[in-house]
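A protein record pairs a chain with a discrete description of its three-dimensional fold. The shape at a given residue is found from the number at the same position. Here is what such a record looks like in full:
>
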Amino acid sequence: DPAYQHKRRLPNSAGVEEIMALQPDVVMIKDSMYSTIGRQLEELSLPVLTLGLESYDEYLRDIGLLGELFQEQSRAALLQKDMTDRVQRASRGSESEEQPEVLMLYYTAREGTSTFHTPPTGWIQTFMTETVGAHPVWVQEHSGNGWQVVNFEQIARWDPDMIFLISYTLPSRDVVSTLKASPLWQSLNAVQQDMLLPFPGDFHSWAQADIRWLLGLKWLAGQIHPRLYPDLDMEQEVISFYQYYLSVSPDVTEKHVLPLVKEDLPGRR
């Protein structure tokens, strides 16, 4: 958005008073904020729209709600259908007899300590894994609602066919390179078979509940079942996605987005 720097932005710590001072017609918030800010705004007679934006079903619902809010029901219906079609096309492998064992790992590094985490059953990372036709090895061991820390001993016990490394700060490809050089990680089947792969992205990772999860889903399907997607071209997928969902022209995408994608698309087989 060329005008982004000129738009008024509230700090993350903004309270009800700061929001009310803007005199908005409606306030859109994450549903997790309703019990704090949302309810207070409604008590002051300000309309509040809560959005989930965390799962496939929530995205379908939220697109419909936004369509009603902006009186763009037809556009919302088209987006909902396109999202459904993309999920269906990425699910060809779900009927395959080959269901590889897959591990999604989120990597963090704080104060010199590296930590690995697995997502809960209801999160988008698990949904993507199951949708494309793979078995998420971590679901039986995961308890709780957030990222769960796992140690290398547990990873070695799973010893999955494929590991997808997610990093939201450091480039995931750099983390993968470091792990592949480790004698400890070299003992894993996925590393020996060159199936420890960085999860790609552009400005943001494709392995989170950002609308880019649709790109991550398609890429993951191509990695899990490459024979089912012999003509997969992720660069064209990105151009199409940015144009359809974000109304960004192909030339802008090629100039500003594809350089990031090309840099972060290893693992094409």
Remarks:
- The two ends are 34 Å apart (CA to CA).
- The mean pLDDT is 93.
